[in-house]
Amino acid sequence: MAWEIVRPVVDLLGGSAFGQWIGQSTERIAWLFVMHLAGLTLLLGGTVVVSLRLLGIGLRSQSLPQLAQDVAPWRTSGLLLSLISGALIFTGGAASYYDGAWFRHKMTLLFVALIFNFTLFRLVTQADEGRFSPWLNRVTGGLALLLWFGVGVSGRAIAFF
Amino acid sequence: MLEWCRALEESQVGTMVRETAFPYIEGTHVLGLSLSVGTVIWFDLRLLGATMRTRSVSEVFRDLKGWMFAGFAIMFLTGALLFTAHATEAYESAYFRAKLALIVAAGANMAIYHLTIDRRQAEWGPAPVPPLAARVAGLISLTLWGSVIAAGRLFAYSL
């Protein structure tokens, strides 16, 4: 399976001096979680705002491409902040995270969400108003919420289950 | 106060949250960030002239306020329930006290903004970059809400 192909890299990361150093201090991990949540707030907040517009239930006074363009740099910064802090948190406890069922669910969903984000989501939110049917907008908005909140929910589940 | 916290913790609600519902309520509280702080940031960034510059400040506020209030309602409700589960630890935690103080400060900043700078918003609202006082209010709000998130996360980590 694909998970086994990546395992040597995970072992290398987790066993490295850097990985050990990160995992050593709970305070360091706690601050990385703060950054992870700050990133989540920007990413999910941006996703909510654009998706409400796509679904036609909020921010209807704004033009979709303009709104998406205004939100994009902040939302992408949130995504980067989440990815970087997440990767560092993972490095600090690679071996214990890697075999977790919810961790794998989260990474699978994240993979799908990222592909969706840079294909359909980007295409639909950047298109001129009226180029696509309102139904495609709604499907895109619904998928964006499902995928990104799915990543969030499975992330929380790692801590509890 | 500590006695009251202990009673709350030992009550049926406190016990139920601590023993069964905690992961679900905590998950809702964390993801509720997307609707609460996650919507407020767009208004704050608009006050800074950093996003949605073609829309007036009042239009941006009108678009966001319903979602914002719904988001904060979820946060207060789930936050109160989480509090019942660990009331004494929360009461004694410096992080938790800091979090409450920061929330009060963020609310005060919002109130001051609406009672002062916002009164003359008809004059400056449509401009891409608001006057200095409005930008300061936006920056204070962003800083305070970011600190609320940090205090909340550090408190949860200390449990």
Characteristics of this structure?
heterodimer; A: 161 residues; mainly alpha; B: 159 residues; 81% helix; 0% strand
Q: What does this protein look like?
A:
The complex is a heterodimer of chains A (161) and B (159). Chain A has 161 residues and is mainly alpha-helical. Chain A has helices at residues 2-15, 17-24, 26-55, 64-91, 94-98, 101-126, 134-160. Chain B has helices at 2-10, 12-31, 37-47, 57-85, 87-92, 94-115, 121-124, 132-158. The two termini of chain B are 20 Å apart. The model of chain B has no long low-confidence stretch (mean pLDDT 97). The interface between A and B is medium-sized, with 36 and 33 residues.
Helix content of chain B: over 70%
* Shape type of chain A: elongated
Q: Ends of chain A: how far apart?
A: 23 Å
Helix/strand/pairing class of chain B, anyone?
A: mainly alpha
The topology string of helices and strands of chain A comes to HHHHHHH
**Rg over CA atoms of chain A:** 18 Å
Tell me the helix content of chain A: over 70%
Average pLDDT number of chain A: 95
**What order do the SSEs of chain B take from the amino end to the carboxyl end, as H and E?**
HHHHHHHH
Separate helix tally of chain A: 7
| Shape verdict of chain B | elongated
Q: What is the rounded Rg of chain B?
A: 18 Å
How would a crystallographer describe the biggest sheet of chain B? none
Which structural class is indicated by helix and strand composition of chain A? mainly alpha
